[in-house]
Amino acid sequence: MTFAPGAVIIYENDSVPLLAVILSDSGGRFRVLNEQGAELSLPTARLTPTALQCSADKSALPELQRLREQIETAQSSISLQDLWEALKESPRTYGSSELMELYLGTPLPLHAVAMHMVLLKDRTFFKRETEGFSPRTEQAVEQCRKLEQQHKERQALSQAFVAFVEQRLADRTIALPSTLQPLMRSIEDIAAENPDISAERHEFASETLKAAHALLKSDQRLPLEQLANKLLDAIGHFDRNTNISLYRYRPPIEFKAEAQAEAAAAAAQEPRLDTLPREDLTALECVTIDDVTTLDMDDAISLQETERGYELGVHITDVSAIVAIGSALDNEARRRATSLYLPERTIPMLPRELSESRCSLVEAAMRPALSCFMLLDRDFRVTSSRVSASIIKVRRRYSYEDVDALLHSQERQMELLFHVASQSEAQRIAGGASKVTKHEAIPVLLEDGTVTLQQVDEDAPSHFLVSEMMVLANKYFAEFAYKNKIPILYRTQEAPEPDGEEDDEAGDGPAADYAFRGKMKRSVMTTSALPHWMLGLRHYTQVTSPIRRFADLCNQRQIMAHLFGQPYPYSSEKLGQIADALETPNIRAVHLSRDSKRFWLLRYLEQQLEKGPVQFKATVVRTDLKIPIVMLDTIFMTCPLKVSPRPALGAEFQVKVEVVQSRTGMLRIAPA
What we know:
Blueprint: E1 7-13, E2 16-25, E3 29-34, E4 39-43, E5 48-53, H1 61-75, H2 80-87, H3 96-104, H4 109-121, E6 126-128, E7 133-135, H5 138-170, H6 181-192, H7 199-213, H8 224-234, H9 245-249, H10 257-267, E8 279-280, E9 286-290, E10 299-305, E11 309-317, H11 328-336, E12 340-341, E13 346-347, H12 352-358, E14 366-377, E15 382-399, H13 400-408, H14 412-430, E16 439-445, E17 451-457, H15 461-483, E18 490-492, H16 510-519, E19 524-526, H17 550-563, H18 572-611, E20 615-622, E21 629-632, E22 637-640, E23 652-661, E24 666-671
Helix pairs in contact: 1-4, 3-4, 5-7, 6-7, 6-8, 7-8, 10-11, 10-12, 14-15
């Protein structure tokens, strides 16, 4: 198609139809002057001809603007709905001139242009085709109307959000209107790079974000997540202690109303303990050992002497007596899969009325329990075991610090328990178990926003004692289920792949521990009783934390059903489905815990840097990458370190912290 100079054409810019006049032909492209006074070079494919003419030079601008006014006047008299009503039963493709003739009778060329531009602006009733326009079906028109309404609502929301940002920049006490909360959530998701945000939500929030960010008068060429963070910081929605991981993974925090109501009802009444046969162990000396801040205590320990040795008891709170299968509480616990313990908050699997009260093994309270007893000889070797439905009453609560103090003073009962734990570990290691030294720095957030560190040595006597008691109990719960053919979820772990030849380069210490952990395979849940390589056990499960882990609660239900002679709540197939369903929330929980810990450790470093230079001892734990990886002492965090010449595994350096950005996860160090 060719156009002579002076011909008026229509073209679209970002879906907006504009008038223009042909100035000249430049070999397949046409130089045009549009109604806004801009000269452009456009290909033929973008041009729609009209029967209108005007001057072929810059003096045409006033003529184009007059034509626009006349066209808009003509447009105001056109009702596309009336035209569509008349033509919807005769679906075919019509040219805009033909449509105007059908609508008006004998139209002027300007009327045909008006019709064409109306059809381009309003796509509700007619669909654009290659050769013209065709009437849509009634269903399509209804859908277009809905989309148009949504578009208008989104525009209104976007404008309201920008207005809110403008107000908030002047006054941070301005509250976010409830109507804008979904949009704010989308912008939070962009800031956190939440992978679950839908394309539609992302697109709408991005447009609004750019419009609102213009108020800051800063660089808009930054990546979207940086624009979102800058905006949310500027209006005080985020601050330096905002853990972005909570927005990236979006763990369920508030319980659904029905689940909360069930929890309140269960907490308000004492559970009936006489409806099923339970062993009365309330006279037994049961104690709990937990962190001093722990409120959800689900395991207790007892030890008493016998004629031939000792009887060790590990008693697990019976959550299955409180939370019914298929209830709203049960569904909520399954959705969450696990409790989360973050520096700034705990997100429990069960509402606090249950997790910290009715189900918790609080001191002096009678509680239904699942007990595992192990008979030991004088050398603390297990000679037999049994499992029982029980009622217990905790006599005393100990913290880890209490137990360490008792062990230091050689208190007899704690010493005996420590010997049991030591013998249990020794037998496992003799059976092929592996042991890795693990040190951990737990960031603790104080009320004033200050971050401190709590050093945790899992090889400390008290931690070792409790950990080994739980391994021992879970081992015998697994054996009980295996012998009695009870379907449960076992915890298994394959052996690492052999290296081919022994590599002693790492020696001992952090480098060796890091290398060992890197070779370990992930433990998995399965309905098959396969070995657990690291623990050195033929059968292993987890039953000891039913308040905190849904899989433990399922296993507890299965064992309790067997003890009471009832049908199993779950088939092996159903347990496999549950394991599959728990996989994603469990992995997300691991990632959230890991990322949150890193954030708060870096936040700790930021606060320390504000006081002055920060230095650490660092050990090289990996050298096969372009930049060596070191483990920082005190915070036990890995970080790349540029150093020359290339260091050996296990080499130690004194390093200084150069740059820390807790929000982005950035940490840069250099040799001190």
